[in-house]
Amino acid sequence: MKKELLADYFNEKRGGIEMLGNMSVTDFLEKTASNDPVPGGGSIAALSAATAAALTEMVANLTIGKKKYVEMEEEMKEVAKTLLAAREELIRDIDKDADSYDQVMQAFKLPKETEEEIDERKNAIQEATKKAALVPLEVAKKAFGLMEAIEMIVVKGNQNAVTDGAVAAMMARTAVLSALYNVKINLGSIKDAAFVEKVSGEVTELETKIEVIEKQILSKVQL
Amino acid sequence: MKKELLADYFNEKRGGIEMLGNMSVTDFLEKTASNDPVPGGGSIAALSAATAAALTEMVANLTIGKKKYVEMEEEMKEVAKTLLAAREELIRDIDKDADSYDQVMQAFKLPKETEEEIDERKNAIQEATKKAALVPLEVAKKAFGLMEAIEMIVVKGNQNAVTDGAVAAMMARTAVLSALYNVKINLGSIKDAAFVEKVSGEVTELETKIEVIEKQILSKVQL
Asked: Shortest CA distance to A176 belongs to which of A152, A200, A211?
């Protein structure tokens, strides 16, 4: 019951709305700037990760077909394919984050007249908030996962585009940390202690590792 | 003469092309990922800065009209206006960076038959490369300039949106450093030693300061 209700609210609110990825860059930023809380930092984290994937893909594409890099040809083709898939998924995550936020808002609007309703509403809020923590956690992991490809293209890719690899590394780092802020703010409202403990551990590990990896990649950028 | 020639090439190449800011987010990233070097890291730096401006503006807009923050009302309205102007300028810089890169490419295509042509081509390349260094330097300065507003909204703005301020700080930091990579790679091809020295000094100063300011702002984010 609860889930159906949520789904109704949800469809009503976002059913007619354009996918964020289909909006123009200008309109998307206009919508970000407005006093509507979505898209917010979580969606921007996904966008930042998608941008990192795109830039890395570009460096791979600028390496493919170049005589000087013929030995890297197959590796570059393979990584470009993986990056394309990651980019497409991350673009969908721009909406997914906004949707998960909307679902929390809708759960708060559930009726709270009877005791049963109050309980159902509490549960719905908890479930929606867990989802609102897990969506950016997934984005953080995906952005983190880009670092291996970024390091590879910085070292083996077309050196004329090496700064684009550096930019990709920084965009991915910012995507990871931005997504993790959105995990943490949701954890504060979750009562399931085991869930909070498990997710907190993952957050801390990703936060620590990503800063080290970013520095490591940037140290390999030769200008 | 040289400049007119460049302008012709330029109009031919980009005249019929849609403004990058008018493309959908998905198409913009598709174009980034392609084996066309533009848009590249320089345009992404401008986009990242525009995103930071938009998120900061959102926090200001989520503060305006709230009883709890009535004392900040005027300050928030003022900063929102400044941020809107910065965002619009930075969206235009996405194209400006791509254009400056194209102009370098066009200068390389100038005729080099006679000695006069060879000299003119060399000068054109040097001038275009200087511009390709100065455009991202301007973006870096604009992104750096956002940090004051970001710190203000993190401290005084709606605390429910404080993580959006944190994301804005990291997006602006990444914008500054990304733009500076694009300055540095161009400096390597510029023969005017005085120009290189002056710009290098500015780069180093911005690089050092931005990391400190980012950490300072993030330390003020209370979760």
From this structure: A211
User: CA A110, CA A60: separation in Å to the nearest integer?
Assistant: 49
**B163 and A185: CB-CB below 8 Å?**
yes
Which residue reads 């040097």 in tokens?
Answer: B126
Q: Do A23 and B22 touch (CB under 8 A)?
A: no
What's the Cα-to-Cα distance from A222 to each of A88, A155, B147, B178, B205, rounded to whole Å? 30, 9, 28, 15, 20
Cis before B136 (ω within 30): no
Determine the pLDDT at residue A223. 86
Residue of B nearest to A56 (CA): B33
Write the ipTM. 0.92
Q: List pLDDT tens digits, range B58-72.
A: 999 999 999 999 999
Q: Are the C-beta atoms of B101 and B195 separated by less than 8 Å? A: no
Class of domain B3-218: mainly alpha
> Cα B165 from chain centroid?
19
Amino acid identity at A146: L
N- to C-terminal Cα separation, chain B: 60
Give CA–CA dist B72/B61, Å, rounded.
11
Between B6-20, B126-140, B173-187, B199-213, the lowest mean confidence (pLDDT) is in B6-20
User: How far is A56 from A53, CA to CA, in rounded Å?
Assistant: 5
∠ CA B14-B19-B25, rounded to 5° = 130
pTM of this prediction? 0.92
Q: What is the DSSP letter of B24?
A: B
Determine the Cα–Cα distance for residues A150 and A172; give it in Å rounded to an integer: 9
Judge contact between A49 and A90, C-beta under 8 A: yes
Contact yes or no for A64 and B177 at CB 8 A: no
Pick the residue of A19, A25, A84 with the most B CBs within 10 A to test the interface with B by mutation.
A25
* Mean pLDDT, residues B190-214 taken together: 98
With beta carbons under 8 A apart, name residues in chain B contacting A53: 29, 33
Amino acid identity at B167:
V
Amino acid at B172: A
- Dump pLDDT digits (tens) for A137-162: 999 999 999 999 999 999 999 999 99
